[in-house]
């Protein structure tokens, strides 16, 4: 049924040129542009680091992050730690706790270190050594 519906639509086709553009590696400039446009003064994930951290140290970790994204593209899937999330149900103010509609869900991406992410963790330790001082 869905196939019949899709067959009557005049959907645009991806050209070879567009496909090549989609398959190319992420550039450093593109990554830095994305980081520059991240919302400020919020924590983006459960790693606890505010977006200001990413803004401040983007130049330092950009190459390593590009490696992670390239690896994910090569594998054809996100790394395991990028696919995991923790979901919590928050009771809305002045609502009955016995009713499902009284809750809203909040999902946060987990930042656990797995085997494939170890190089990113080691790189983060290098950043920590550069940022944290005895003073």
From TrEMBL:
Domain of life: Eukaryota
PANTHER family cross-referenced by the UniProt entry: REVERSE TRANSCRIPTASES
Name of the featured protein: Uncharacterized protein
Organism (species): Pleurodeles waltl (Iberian ribbed newt)
């Amino acid at each position: 049924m869905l196939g019949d519906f899709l067959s009557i639509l005049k959907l645009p086709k991806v050209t070879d040129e567009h496909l090549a553009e989609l398959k190319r590696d992420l550039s450093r400039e593109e990554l830095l542009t994305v980081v520059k446009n991240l919302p400020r003064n919020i924590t983006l994930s459960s790693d606890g680091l505010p977006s200001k951290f990413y803004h401040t140290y983007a130049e330092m970790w950009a190459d390593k992050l590009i490696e992670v994204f390239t690896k994910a593209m090569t594998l054809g899937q996100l790394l395991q730690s990028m696919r995991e999330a923790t979901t919590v149900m928050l009771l809305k103010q002045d609502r009955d706790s016995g009713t499902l509609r009284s809750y809203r869900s909040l999902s946060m991406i987990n930042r656990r270190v797995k085997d494939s992410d170890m190089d990113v963790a080691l790189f983060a330790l290098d950043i920590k050594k550069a940022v944290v001082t005895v003073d």
